[in-house]
Amino acid sequence: MLIQCTKKLLDELKVTPDTPIEKDPLFSWHANLLKLGRKKTLVLVNDKNRYAIVLYGLKAKDMKNIDKLILKVVRETFQAECIKDEIIEQFIQHSNNVVFSKTKDRTSVARMNKACEYVYYFEDLLDNDAIIQVEMSLRISSLLVGDGKNSYIYPNKEMYTHLEGFAGQPIFLSEAVELKVTLMLEKYSVWRKIIVPTNTTFSNLHKVVQIAFEWQNSHLHEFYIYPSNTDAKVIPINRDKPIVNLVCDEEALSYQGDIPMKMETGIKLADYLPVRIIYNYDFGDNWKHSIEVVRMIEDYDVNFPVCLDGEGHAPPEDVGGEPGYEEFLHIIGDKNHQDYEHMVNWGRRQGYREFDVEEVNRELRR
């Protein structure tokens, strides 16, 4: 693997750059060192497809082992992409001899600098407790970029194509779970069935549910994890008491009760399955969703969630909980009501529309 470094990075690494060698660009990366706050951040961008990976909070000891860390971040990021383990290992073996050199040309540096801009822009995605920043890497690699030929590419999709060419076979295979997510309303039936890889983080499960129910992601949320039926049969356990509360905001940790509370960042579904989950969105309107496991899938061959089915409209944002939703439906169901036109237009602005499984799946794939 060829790592083409800025002068700042070479100075930090205290290495003498090797003479660049001709190498397959799939195994060549440009790299830069940033400072985010007081933490050193390494950004690497693949020469062939502009796929980016990020290391954060690097210390002197990490710099001494940077070659091993780079291979580790590649492995863990590809695993999060649901790429087959055998293909990841082939890629790592092919990359095992890490060589450092100077940057190649201005075009490559400009592309690397663009990825660095995205890291600054999405700084809120950083996990302060981790060096390897998988979520950040996936996010900036999924952004549309120019390829210099008056067209645009998605770096992650380009990487998938190039890995398939390298391996000579389809690259995706993972364990997944089918979930039924039901909005807990007294008078209305609103639910979705979705499939997600089990290595999906709870941060990303939140995003999946937001898309599936066409919420606007404008409020805080949390997850309550309950023991499964199987757990309750094996050991004495209260199935009605959560075993953990996963939160999205560090301020919530100031309100610890008798239920253990953790930040959701980096925690995966696989860490707890099989379980029952309550997902709560918007603590004002208090939209609670019951999430139950329908079945496990051992050979899921794509790396994105899929919505299989669903029923019912999700309420519009900020409607005032179920009582407000009931009043909203009453008004838009009566064209003679004095507030009919205003309420229809307001609902449209709030994202209220009929459930469309094809549209949901387009958004999930994006």
Automatic annotation (TrEMBL):
<protein>
    <submittedName>
        <fullName>Plasmid pRiA4b ORF-3 family protein</fullName>
    </submittedName>
</protein>
<dbReference type="Pfam" id="PF22016">
    <property type="entry name" value="DUF6933"/>
</dbReference>
<dbReference type="InterPro" id="IPR024047">
    <property type="entry name" value="MM3350-like_sf"/>
</dbReference>
<feature type="domain" description="DUF6933">
    <location>
        <begin position="2"/>
        <end position="158"/>
    </location>
</feature>
<dbReference type="Pfam" id="PF07929">
    <property type="entry name" value="PRiA4_ORF3"/>
</dbReference>
<dbReference type="InterPro" id="IPR012912">
    <property type="entry name" value="Plasmid_pRiA4b_Orf3-like"/>
</dbReference>
<feature type="domain" description="Plasmid pRiA4b Orf3-like">
    <location>
        <begin position="176"/>
        <end position="362"/>
    </location>
</feature>
<dbReference type="InterPro" id="IPR053864">
    <property type="entry name" value="DUF6933"/>
</dbReference>
